[in-house]
Amino acid sequence: MKKLFSLVFFVLCFIESNAQFQINEDFVIPSNEALFVGENLIIATNKTLTCNGIIQATSNWTNNGIFVDTDNSLVKFSGSILQQVNGNTTFSNLTINNSANVNLGGGVFIRKVLNLQNGNLISNGNLKLLSDASNTAMVINTNGTVTGNATQQRYVDGTYNAVGYRYFSSPVQTTSINSVF
Prior knowledge:
Structural class: mainly beta
Strand content: 35-45%
Radius of gyration: 18 Å
Distance between the termini: 56 Å
Mean pLDDT: 86
């Protein structure tokens, strides 16, 4: 089955030109499958890439179409040169393993986990950690940091309409709530 998967993906979605791996047809990566991309990954306009498994990219990411991933999917940037992420993209789980860093040129939204294994994520104000009734995104800083501004959402259940306090705290180091206001 894996050989058929690879062959179908190659025939339908891969055009090699100027070191690009372009998704030109709607495509699904099944769970327990992985896609390794060594070239610039481009999701074409009006095309959908659905990830139920793993995508490992060692070059740039451009989302001109639609990227859909499940709660258990993973996208991993693991290049050896500065990688660019362009186009608004929502990731459930994103791992940075690039000592040359990853730069955000478009909106990146994290639903579950941003894992900084090795290298920094340069946000340029384009990072948002999402929160809803099911999940609140978090950052794991193993060997890296988020540089630049980021937005952290925090879900508050509206069914508890009683007057009272809601406790919030600063999720970063060397910052106080006082400095935020």
